[in-house]
C-alpha cells in the first residue's frame, strides 16, 4: 500500500512531512508538489487542476495496490476527483479542511484568493478558476474517509466538514480545538494519531 500526500494551493511537497514523520508506519509514501502553485516552478504540461488530477490518477494506477490519499485544502478537491476517476484504486481517504467539491460560499467560507495572491504573486492564474460542484457525485465515493477540521478556520469552516459528512457514505469527522487551515503543521502529532487509527 502507498500513502499519497497532497498539499493545498501552497503546492509544496513538504507540507505533510510533519505528519508523515510521526506516523510510524511502513507503507510506501509519495509526496506530491503542484507545479506553478505557491513557490513551485511551473511545468508546461500543468495548466489547471485537471492536470493535477491526472497526475494523481496516473500514480494510483501505477501503485502496486489500493492506496490512501491524504489531502489538504485544494488537494482534497484533487483527491476527490481522483477517487471518482479511479475508485478501485483508493483504499481510503483523509481530507483536511477542504471543499472536496462542495460549494464553499454557501457554507460561510471566507474568500482566500486575495491573500493567496499577496503571498504567492507568481502562482499560476488558473488557481483562482471556479471548480466543479461535486455534491451529487460524492455519494459514489464509498472508501472510508476521515475528515479533519479545525474549529478556528475561516477558509474552510466546520460547516464544510459537516456537509461532507452528510454526503460521503463512509465518513467520520474529527474537529480539532484551536486549529485552523494549517492544522497538519500546527497539530501534527494529533493529526498523525488520528490518521494511524483511521488506517488501522
Report on the structure:
The chain is of the alpha/beta class and 200 residues long. Helix content is 32%, strand content 17%. The protein is built from 7 helices and 6 strands. Strand 3 (67-72), helix 3 and strand 4 (90-96) form a beta-alpha-beta unit.
Question: Can you lay out the helices and strands and say which pair or pack?
Answer:
Blueprint (H helix, E strand, L loop, with lengths): L1 E5 L10 H4 L7 E4 L17 H14 L4 E6 L1 H12 L4 E7 L16 H7 L25 E6 L7 H10 L3 E6 L6 H4 L1 H12 L1
Parallel strand pairs: 1-2, 1-3, 3-4, 4-5, 5-6
Helix pairs in contact: 2-3
Task: Give me some keywords for this one.
7 helices, 6 strands, 200 residues, single chain, six-stranded parallel β-sheet, alpha/beta
Short description:
This protein is of the alpha/beta class and 200 residues long. It is built from seven helices and six strands; from the N terminus they run E-H-E-H-E-H-E-H-E-H-E-H-H. Strand 5, helix 5 and strand 6 form a beta-alpha-beta unit.
**Main β-sheet, spatial strand arrangement:** 2-1-3-4-5-6
* Secondary structure tally, helices: 7
Oligomerization category of the chains in this entry: single chain
Shape: globular
Question: How does the helix and strand content classify structurally?
Answer: alpha/beta
- What average pLDDT do the residues reach? 94
Helix content: 25-40%
The profile of the biggest β sheet is: 6 strands, parallel
Termini, distance in Å?
A: 13 Å
Strand content: 15-25%
Number of strands: 6
> Unreliable segments (pLDDT under 50, ≥5 consecutive)?
none
Please give the radius of gyration in angstroms.
Answer: 15 Å
- Helix-strand pattern, N to C? EHEHEHEHEHEHH
